[in-house]
Each structure stands twice: as structure tokens, then as C-alpha cells.
Amino acid sequence: APRIQGREMPRTMRRPCRKMPRMDAKRLGMRIDAALLLSGMTREHLAEEIDYSYDQLGRYIRGEQTPRRPVIDAIANATGQPAVFFTDEYEGLLAAAERLFREGPQGGEV
Question: Which of 41, 62, 71, 72 is the most buried (most CB within 10 A)?
């Protein structure tokens, strides 16, 4: 079994987890706010949907704290956005989609 500082690593730490590229707290907060706007939800409704307090959600939106992956997944589900919306990868995906739309598929017909 894997070890940390000579001790056996707890089983929960051995499980692989889906890592999501991190975004800085301020930008992530702006994304959460944008997801709210796109969904037409209020902060109160989102806080209720994800079972967090309005104050805690406010800390996430202001960038004072960074939510963990399960919270981001809950926000994504509640607002109807894909989880990637809350990552830096999203801009790259949008740029690639725009380029594909503008230039068409490379190498022939679809």
C-alpha cells in the first residue's frame, strides 16, 4: 500500500478522483454569477438548490473562498451549465468551436 511519511495512506486518499482544472477564486465567482444570470435563478434559489447557506454562496461568488468539486458539480447541475463552464478550459473550448464554425472542418466534407 502507498505510504505517506512512513504511514500507510488512508484508503480514501488512494482512490483516483476526477480532477478539474482549477480557476482562481475571483474568476470562478464571476462564472457562478454568470451561470446564475444565464439560468435566471436568484442567489437565494441556488443556495437552496445546492443546500448551502446564502452567505456561503456569497463567499464563493465574491471569490473569498473556492468551492470544492462536489459543490461546483451541484452548481453546474442546478444552473444547467456543464462543469467545464467553471474552468479555464472553457475559453479554449469556445475558441476552438468558434474557429471550427468560422473555418469549417479541415480535410474535406463532413
Answer: 72
Please state the φ and ψ torsions of residue 65, each to the nearest 5 degrees: -140, 155
- pTM score, two decimals? 0.68
| Residues 35 and 81: beta-carbon distance below 8 Å | yes
What are the b/e assignments for 48-67, b being 16+ CB within 10 Å? Answer: eebebeeeebebbbeeeebb
CB 72 within 8 A of CB 82: no
The pLDDT tens digits for 44-97 are 999 999 999 999 999 999 999 999 999 999 999 999 999 888 987 877 777 777
Extract the C-alpha cell encoding 63.
471569490
Non-local (6+) Cβ contacts of 43 within 8 A are: 36, 54, 57, 58, 61
DSSP bridge pairs for 8: 3
Q: Which residue in this structure is represented by grid cell 461568488?
A: 61
Q: What is the DSSP-derived secondary structure letter of residue 9?
A: P
Q: Where are the beta strands (DSSP E) in 1-110?
A: 3-4, 7-8
